[in-house]
Amino acid sequence: MNRHEQRKKIFQIIFQVDHGLVGVEETAFHHLYRDYDYIRQIVDYFLENSEAVDGGISDHLTSYTLERIPKVERNILRTAISELLHGDSPQRVVINEAILLTKLYGEKDGYRFVNGVLKNFITETDEQSNGEH
To answer: Coil, helix or strand for 61?
Structure first.
């Protein structure tokens, strides 16, 4: 399974565990979570750091709250930010993949929103890591 397909499954697992209605072991793709290290790595990172990931999203929202973002876009952002913080893919690849997922599963212009949030997140993260404030 290539990295693109793994990202889809990461998103689908995070989508299913949104609001804690099911645990990872109850998701439709638990067997893939178990079998693929990258899927497990990113999902586990999100589950262990969900407040920080959600905070990273919330800090880059204007006129929205995390709960007001459509569920698809919210969980694509969670997937992408988890991967940006803990994965090994270039930032541009993560953003492009998030846009593709949003075009596939999200609202008509949701990809623009996802792109804007992620670009702002990366800009601020890069400034902080370079010591700029």
So the answer is: coil
| The pair of three-digit structure tokens given for residue 89, joined into one six-digit string | 């893919």
Q: Which residue has the tokens 């929205």?
A: 64
Rounded to two decimals, what is the model's pTM?
Answer: 0.92
Token digits of residue 70: 């459509």
Closest CA to 59 of 13, 127, 111: 127
Residue-wise pLDDT tens digits, 12-50: 999 999 978 899 999 999 999 999 999 999 999 999 999
Amino acid at 97: E
Under a CB-based contact definition with an 8 Å cutoff, are residues 78 and 14 in contact?
yes
With H, G, I as helix, E, B as strand and everything else as coil, classify residue 89: coil
Indicate the burial class of 126 (C-beta count within 10 angstroms; 0-12, 13-18, 19 or more): exposed
Output Rg (C-alpha) for the chain, integer angstroms: 14
Check if the beta carbon of residue 35 is closer than 8 Å to that of residue 84.
no
Residue pair 7/77 in contact (Cβ under 8 Å)? The answer is no
